[in-house]
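Quick log. Single chain, no ligands specified.
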Amino acid sequence: MKKLIVLAICGIVVMAGCKGNKVQGTESEADSTLADSVTIAEEPQDTTPLPMFLYCLNKDYMMMVYWSGIEEPKKNKDNAEYFEDMYRPWLLQEGFRRNAAAYTKMLAEDGKTIDIKYIGELLKNPDGEEMYSGELHSRASIPSPGLRYAFVNPNDPQLNKTDWKDMDIVVTEDYLQTRKLMKSKLLSPFDKENPLPKAVVKQLEEEYGMKAESSTAVFSFDDRYTYGVMQFKGVYKTVKEYSQERKVALALEVLTDGDKVYSYPVEGYYDDQEGPTWNVDDEGHYISSGIPAAFKGPNGPELCFTHWAPESCTVGLFLIRNGKLERIQYECYHSLIDENTPLWKKDLAEMRKLYLEQDPHSNKHFHLTRYRPIDIDDDGIDEFWLRDKDDKHGALFTLKDGKVSLIGVEDGRLQTSFRQVRDGKGYVQIGGSAGGPSMYTQVFEIKNSQVVRRFTSLEIYGEIDECSLDGKNATKEEGAAYIKSLPEVRDPYIYFMDINE
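-> predicted structure:
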C-alpha cells in the first residue's frame, strides 16, 4: 500500500518537477522544494496528473480545498514517528498545486465535459488570517484555503444540469487522452437494494473467515466491473489502545471483474450493545461510496470515489494494482453544518459607517457590538442584524457580492419583527410608538439579498393617517390593503453573538 500511494503521488508531481515550487499560472511561491528521497515503486510510472475533486457550492464557489499547509513538512526528532503520514498528503496536494492551470475539464452528464479555468489560490480570509485546511463549509460566504476555478462560459447550458453542493471531478487533457470514461449504471436505487452475487459473498466469507451481515451491489461499469460493499457480523478483532481493549468491526469495499473479486477492508468500532459503526449516525450500516466517475486506464480501472457521511467527506481513487484493490485517499474532510456566517472586519466597518450616517446626532451614542446573521429571504445568503449592548438600538443590513446596504434602523422605540417568506421575498417590519396614540411602521421586502420595496405608515388611534410605497405617497386605502396583504408573522430563533474586536 505504501509503495502504491507513493507511486500515485509521483504520477501527479513528476510532470511539474522542473517548474519550481509554485502554483502554475501564478507568481505565488511556496517556500521549499520537494524532498529528493521519495521512493518510486517498481512498476512503470504513469506521470499523468490524477483526477482532482472540486467542492462546488455554486457557480462562483468551486475550489480544490486544501488538506495540508503549503509549507513542506520538515522531519525532526519530534515528528519522526509520523513524518511519513504528514509528508505524503502534502506531496499529493503539492502536485495539484503545481498543475493547477492544467485542470481544464469538469465532467458533466452523459460523458460530456465543461471547460473550466484556474483563477487563483486562496490562502487567507477577508480579515487577512490564515484558514484551517481540511474543512468543507456549508455556506459560500465562508472561504476555505485552496485552488479556485471558474467556468470558461458561465452561460453553458450544461450548467443547468450540474448539482451544486457536491464534489465534482476535474481532469487534465492528458488524462482524457489516456483514459476511457466507462458507462455507469446504478444497481441499487434508493427504493430497492440489490445484494452482491452469492458466489462473491461466499468467496469473501472464506477469505476473511467471517459471516456476512449484509452486502449491496451499488454500481456497474461498462457491464464488466461491479462495485459494492459488504459488512460482516460480530467482532473482527480486538486491539489495545491506551491500555484498553477495543473491539473492531469490519466492512469491505468490493470490486469485481467477471469472476475476479477484489476487496478493501475498512475497520470500524464494535460495541456489545450498540453494534458496529463506521461513521457518525450510520445506524450500524456501512455507507457505500459514490462513484462520480469511472475510467478504464492503461493499468486497469480507476474509480473516483466520494464517501459522504453526516460530518465528513472522503475523496480519492480505487485502483487494482498487483492483484489487489487499493484505495488512495486524498483527504477525509470535516464537513461542517449549521455554521454562522462570519462578520468580516471590513464589512463591520462599513455597517457601522452606514449606521452612523443614518442619524449622526443620535446614533453616535450607540455602538453596534453584537450581531446575528439571518437569511431573511431564504436565498442562501445571510443578512446581518447588529445591535448595541442595550438590545434596543440597532440596524439590519444586506450583504451581497461584497456590497453592504442598510435596510433599516431600530431606535429604541422602533423594534424589528419578521414575516414569512413568500414568492422568494422576505419581510422585515420595524415599528413602534411614535408618541401618544401614534404608531409608526416600516416594512422592507427583501429578495435576492436586496431591498426591492419599502412601505411606511403612520397610524393614529389605529387608523392610517398617512403612508407611502417606495417613497411615493399612497392613499389610506392602498396602505390598508398593503398591510392586510402581508404574510403571517415569522418567529425565527434569535440569538446575538458578541463581536470580537
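Residues 370 and 498 are 4 Å apart (CA to CA).
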